[in-house]
């Protein structure tokens, strides 16, 4: 076990008032994207009372922004083994083969279930599902909806299913604070802050027999990300404070093609809503799957010759290819050329992309699309087993917040929505098998309890982008660690923004610690000073926060 020099000690609890109200349920699910809502619906099938708490509104998470689709073996000529092979190649030696097997074998049934719940995927005139291809896949196995609006359709269908069930209680504008644990250490609920009214306003507690984290990602630790503003690593930070193990957080995937346009500052329209300052519109990989290609300022296709799949290589390979061009030229973007696909096809297949680029004055039918990598997906997270159990009994995690082992060092395109579906169901099955009676929370253990000044948010994002972004080195990471320590000293009184930024600081510190320790280049972790993969690093770094707030790491070799 080792600690990284210069990083700040972290709080073991968020500074907050004592809960002023308490509610009880069977299972509390935190998060309302594909993983959280799927877990809630399956838990209801077990006859359990479920409370879903979500930070803003039910549809404000990452799911509705997903464009590409959901990968699964639905073509008779494709096989689960082929899907597993592509997943493991993208994961560069760090995928858990058993978790991957579960994902690819159970995925098709979960998609059929989603269709039964009302999700409408794009189909051919004969009624069969349209399947497309994205980076790293060697077969057409991605289902999509509304062309490039897959996430929005999935969110709509799940949202409606949840609304139809009177036994699922939804609490919006609820920021989860800390885990409550019984005397035997089992999770027995959580504290949260609700911007509500009446009995449910301010800091409160929800007592539950099991807690499911489905809080999504942490893209907001960077200055540019495809993630919405709510993606502030709340679940990973809560798990670290509670003493749960978190793993693989150094593997943040940068999507190669986020849109670099003035549209990010526009007032937005219904089709192209306004984004937060850090959020950039995604230009789905499916556009490259349909034949668009990347060119530099001189019009040269720079990915050809770098990888046998050129623009459709796994994401880390394409993001690195683009970053090399940016470093060599000093430009802030390269271009995606989709003009040869034609306006009519682009309108029908990519309405979301057409709306967001046109809002910024770029018409992909006639113009090159300026693109650059942006933080997109946390391949690591709260460590779980094949049933979504974390290292704290009674605490589960699924979706982007979790690290089930399926993504390894780099997630394969369109495997994330699938992972949410598959492991949410497994959690519900596990909870249904073994749910103890409600336990009383034990007093919170002693340990540091504070929050930082929300004004550090932009500095933190700049620090992480500069020091721990696409390309890292010992020097850049040491600089980031020192700067995070300085920012951690700027404390504040508790409030929503301060709790959220303290979560950002917590996950940023864990990421810098792991990225510093991992002295190799693997998947989406790219070290300038250690440019190749090293066998001795074939394993996982486990982060934990000790009782004094010191962040430690343990390396666990792959079996
Ligand atoms: C995309 O459409 O390119 C994103 C899909 C994903 O993140 O898997």
Give a quick summary of the entry.
With 559 residues, this protein is α/β, with parallel strands linked by helices. The protein has helices at 34-45, 80-90, 97-116, 150-164, 234-242, 285-289, 315-329, 343-349, 351-358, 416-433, 457-468, 474-488, 496-517; strands spanning 2-3, 22-24, 27-30, 50-53, 70-71, 131-132, 142-143, 168-171, 174-181, 187-194, 202-207, 210-213, 246-247, 252-259, 293-295, 334-337, 369-378, 381-383, 395-397, 402-403, 471-472, 526-527, 539-545, 551-557.
Name the average pLDDT. Answer: 94
* Rounded radius of gyration (Å): 22 Å
User: What is the β-strand count?
Assistant: 24
Ligands (ions, cofactors included)? succinic acid
Strand line-up in the sheet with most strands: 1-24-23-13-18-20
Q: For the record, give the distance between the C-alpha atoms at the N and C termini, rounded to a whole number.
A: 19 Å
Uncertain ranges: 263-271
Fourth-tier CATH superfamily name of the largest domain: FAD/NAD(P)-binding domain
What is the tally of helical segments?
Answer: 13
Q: Write down the overall geometry.
A: globular
Sheet with most strands: 6 strands, mixed
CATH class category name of the largest domain: Alpha Beta
């Amino acid at each position: 076990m080792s600690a990284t020099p210069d990083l700040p000690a972290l709080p073991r609890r968020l500074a907050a008032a004592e809960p002023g109200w308490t509610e009880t349920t069977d299972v509390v699910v935190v998060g309302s994207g594909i993983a959280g809502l799927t877990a809630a619906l399956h838990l209801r099938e077990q006859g359990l009372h479920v409370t879903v708490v979500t930070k803003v509104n039910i549809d404000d998470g990452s799911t509705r922004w997903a464009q590409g689709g959901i990968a699964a073996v639905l073509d008779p000529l494709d096989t689960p083994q082929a899907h597993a092979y592509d997943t493991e190649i993208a994961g560069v030696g760090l995928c858990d083969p058993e978790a991957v097997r579960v994902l690819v074998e159970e995925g098709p049934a979960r998609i059929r279930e989603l269709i039964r719940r009302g999700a409408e995927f794009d189909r051919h005139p004969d009624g069969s599902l349209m399947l497309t291809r994205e980076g790293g896949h060697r077969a057409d196995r991605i289902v999509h909806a509304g062309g490039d609006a897959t996430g929005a359709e999935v969110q709509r269908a799940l949202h409606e299913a949840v609304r139809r069930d009177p036994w699922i209680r939804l609490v919006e504008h609820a920021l989860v604070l800390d885990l409550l644990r019984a005397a035997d250490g089992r999770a027995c609920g959580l504290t949260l802050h609700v911007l509500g009214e009446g009995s449910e306003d301010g800091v409160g507690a929800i007592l539950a027999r099991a807690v499911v984290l489905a809080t999504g990602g942490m893209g907001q630790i960077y200055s540019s990300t495809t993630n919405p503003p709510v993606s502030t690593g709340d679940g990973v930070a809560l798990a670290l404070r509670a003493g749960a193990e978190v793993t693989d957080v150094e593997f943040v995937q940068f999507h190669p093609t986020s849109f670099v346009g003035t549209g990010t500052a526009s007032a937005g329209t219904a089709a192209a809503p306004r984004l937060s300052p850090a959020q950039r519109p995604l230009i789905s990989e499916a556009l490259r799957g349909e034949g668009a290609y990347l060119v530099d300022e001189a019009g040269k296709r720079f990915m050809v010759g770098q990888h046998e799949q050129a623009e459709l290589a796994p994401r880390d390979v394409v993001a690195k290819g683009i970053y090399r061009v940016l470093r060599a030229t000093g430009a802030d973007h390269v271009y995606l050329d989709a003009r040869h696909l034609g306006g009519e096809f682009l309108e029908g297949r990519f309405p979301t992309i057409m709306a967001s680029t046109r809002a910024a004055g770029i018409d992909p039918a006639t113009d090159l699309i300026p693109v650059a990598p942006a933080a997109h997906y946390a391949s690591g997270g709260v460590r779980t087993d094949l049933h979504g159990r974390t290292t704290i009994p009674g605490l589960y995690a699924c979706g982007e917040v979790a690290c089930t082992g399926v993504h390894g060092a780099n997630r394969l395109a369109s495997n994330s929505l699938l992972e949410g579906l598959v492991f949410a169901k497994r959690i519900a099955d596990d909870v249904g098998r073994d749910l103890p009676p409600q336990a009383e929370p034990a007093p919170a253990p002693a340990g540091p309890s504070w929050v930082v000044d929300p004004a550090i948010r932009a500095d933190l994002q700049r620090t992480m982008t500069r020091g721990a972004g696409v390309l890292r080195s010992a020097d850049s990471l040491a600089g980031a660690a020192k700067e995070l320590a300085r920012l951690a000293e700027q404390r504040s009184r508790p409030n929503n923004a301060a709790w959220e930024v303290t979560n950002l600081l917590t996950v940023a510190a864990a990421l810098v610690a792991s990225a510093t320790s991992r002295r190799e280049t693997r998947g989406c972790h790219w070290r300038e000073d250690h440019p190749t993969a090293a066998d001795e690093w074939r394993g996982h770094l486990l982060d934990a926060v000790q009782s004094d707030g010191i962040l430690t790491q343990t390396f666990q070799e792959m079996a």
